Amino acid sequence: MIKVKPLGVNGAFTKYYHNNYIFELGNRKLLVDAGTTLRSSLIESLYQESDITDIVITHLHSDHVGGLEEFAQRCKWVHNHKPTLWIRTELAGGLLQIISSGLCTDGLKLSDYFNLEFIDDGFIIDAYEVELIYTDNLHAGNMLSMGLKINDIQGYKNIIFTSDIAKHKEAQFDGYIDQLTVALFHDVSVVPNAVHSFLHDVIDYYKGKIELNKIYGMHYQDDIDIKTLNKETGINFVTRNTTYEF
Ligand SMILES: [Zn+2]
């Protein structure tokens, strides 16, 4: 069983929490993105840093990486815990630049905080393969970014996670959908937005490609009427601190 717990579901400028997730994959807990609100959202989710075994960062906006340095500091100094940080090779320069200056003091190296693993296509944790879906320049211009496809290696199910995306048609997530896909976590903005997918475009595009009730909308604006939108659109808007089991 894959458990997905959103630590937050909203955008970069939210008054609540950023769109960061924990995927429970067997005995491992994969943190997907670490925004600046992570210090609070993690506590409210009833997890703590030492529960997180693995981390992957989808792109370098602050609502996805701004909390990573503090997370690392707390892992080391509060919990004496060293998680694995899976780093897409092309993202390594930028990512390490963001966190190194605060972490690599007094002779410390990043490898004192994380088990560092550099990856190109994906990685395997427990009985799951986490596949990278490159979306470079399709969320924001001149930006490396990626979504994820999480495959149950036994071949029972998979979940697709777009992370932030504007040009979802060009990203061709639908090419990753198959009969084993149980959920598509998709960026949806309820108003047109240059760097995020517009809700109604998403619904129009995926009609006939996947059942709408398998689409889980995320990264949406604060304080929208989720119940009404769920009913009107037929998709699910994820809510924070709800555990979704697949
Ligand atoms: Zn972003």
Structure write-up:
- The chain is of the alpha/beta class and 246 residues long.
- The protein has a single domain (2-239), classed as Ribonuclease Z/Hydroxyacylglutathione hydrolase-like (Metallo-beta-lactamase, Chain A), CATH 3.60.15.10.
- 22% of the residues lie in helices and 26% in strands.
- The chain has a seven-stranded mixed β-sheet with strand order 6-5-4-3-2-1-14, with no helix packed on it.
- Strand 2 (21-25) and strand 3 (28-32) form a beta hairpin.
- Helix 3 packs across helix 4.
- The protein is globular, with a radius of gyration of 17 Å.
- The model has no long low-confidence stretch (mean pLDDT 97).
- Residues 59, 61, 64, 139, 164 line the site of zinc ion (ZN).
What is the level-2 CATH architecture name?
4-Layer Sandwich
Largest sheet, described in full?
7 strands, mixed
Total beta-strand segments: 14
Look at the structure and name the CATH superfamily. Answer: Ribonuclease Z/Hydroxyacylglutathione hydrolase-like
Q: What strand line-up does the widest sheet have? A: 6-5-4-3-2-1-14
What is the count of DSSP helices, taking H or I runs of 4+ residues? 7
What ligand species are in this complex? zinc ion
Structural class: alpha/beta
Question: If you consult CATH, what is the topology?
Answer: Metallo-beta-lactamase, Chain A
